[in-house]
Amino acid sequence: MTRHHPDSLSLMEYSAGNLSEPHALCIRLHLDKCAQCRCQVDTLDSLGAVVMEKQPKVSVSGTMFDDILARIDSSTEPRPQVKMQPKTSLLQKLLGEDINNLPWKRQLGDVSVLDITGKFPGQNEQVVLQKLVAGGKAPAHTHRGTETTIVLQGMFSDHKGVFSQWDFVVLTEQDEHKPVALGSEDCITLSVLSAPVKLTGTFTRLLNPFIR
C-alpha cells in the first residue's frame, strides 16, 4: 500500500500533459499501484474534457483552482475502467532488462547509481537510478534544486518517514537527509534532479566539486 503520493498540483499538471517526460514517468509508475491517485487523475481528465468542450464559453474565475481541488477531494472511489500498463512492462521498456541486472556503478559506500538521462533526449533534468544495499546508509546530503523520487524496489527511511515500493517523494533545498535502506532487499529508486545533490558530511562534503 502506497503512503506517500504526488500533491494535487502535480497530478493536475500530469493530467494536463504539462510535465516533462521523466516527471510524468515517476507519476505514471505511482499511478499504476495507487487507486487513490488514479481516481484523482481520472476526475481531472473528465473535468479537462468538459472544459475543452465548452472552451469558448468558459471564463477562469479566481476560485476555479480551489473548486477543482474540492472536486478531487470529494472523489474517493477508484474507477475500475482505468487500465494502466503493468509496471514491469513499463520499466523493462525503458531499461531493457530487470533493474537488479543493470550495470550499476558504485558511487559512495553503500550507494550505486546508473545515470539514464540519455534515455530522455532534450530534457534539462538529470535522471538517475540509485541503489542502496539492504541495511545500508546513504551519505548525508541536501539538494541544490528539486529531486523527485519514486521507490521501485525495497524501502528506505529518512527524516520524512518510511518510503516503500511505489511511494513518491519530492525533496528541495530545505531538506537534508541520510536515507537508510530497510529490510532484507536492496532499495532502488528512480530520481529526477534539477541540480546535483550537495553532500553535507564532515568528510564527504570534500567530494562536492566532483559530483555532477
TrEMBL record:
CDD domains: cupin_ChrR. Residues 99-190 form the ChrR-like cupin domain. Gene3D superfamilies: Anti-sigma factor, zinc-finger domain, Jelly Rolls. InterPro entries: Anti-sigma_ChrR, Anti_sigma_zinc_sf, ChrR-like_cupin_dom, RmlC-like_jellyroll, RmlC_Cupin_sf. It holds the Pfam family Cupin_7. It comes from the Bacteria. NCBIfam families: anti_sig_ChrR. This is ChrR family anti-sigma-E factor. It comes from Marinobacter xiaoshiensis. The lineage of its organism: Bacteria, Pseudomonadati, Pseudomonadota, Gammaproteobacteria, Pseudomonadales.
